């Protein structure tokens, strides 16, 4: 939820849409990497489902979207595509993928909290 709030702030603070979208994209690329490193240091691959959920968002959506933005600077996002998938469609699916990642994160967190109580 904090990331979504940060993205909203980014778009309000940075008036130029392409730059704001790129800054938000960097956030969506860096944050999963940081979280995966921290989680790996904490518990290795104990919560494999969490790593899979994060990796699917990161590799299938966050990296490609940021990549096509950076490699096609100045081109409107609605004119971009990645492996034949139009940018806007990719972005739609990335939102759903992000929600899946958040649901899995919440589920793993609840599971961990329950384990800690016993």
TrEMBL record:
The keyword Transmembrane applies. The chain crosses the membrane at residues 20-38, 50-75, 95-113. The keyword Membrane applies. The lineage of its organism: Bacteria, Pseudomonadati, Bdellovibrionota, Bdellovibrionia, Bdellovibrionales. This is Uncharacterized protein. Keywords: Membrane, Transmembrane, Transmembrane helix. It comes from the Bacteria.
């Amino acid at each position: 939820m904090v990331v979504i709030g940060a993205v909203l702030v980014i778009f309000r603070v940075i008036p130029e849409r392409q730059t704001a979208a790129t800054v938000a994209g960097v956030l969506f690329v860096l944050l999963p990497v940081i979280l995966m490193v921290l989680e790996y240091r904490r518990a290795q691959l104990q919560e494999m489902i969490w790593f899979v959920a994060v990796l699917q968002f990161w590799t299938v959506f966050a990296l490609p979207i940021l990549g096509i933005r950076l490699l096609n600077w100045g081109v409107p996002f609605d004119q971009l595509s990645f492996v034949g998938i139009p940018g806007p469609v990719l972005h739609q699916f990335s939102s759903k993928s992000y929600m899946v990642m958040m649901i899995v994160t919440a589920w793993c967190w609840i599971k961990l909290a329950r384990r800690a109580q016993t």
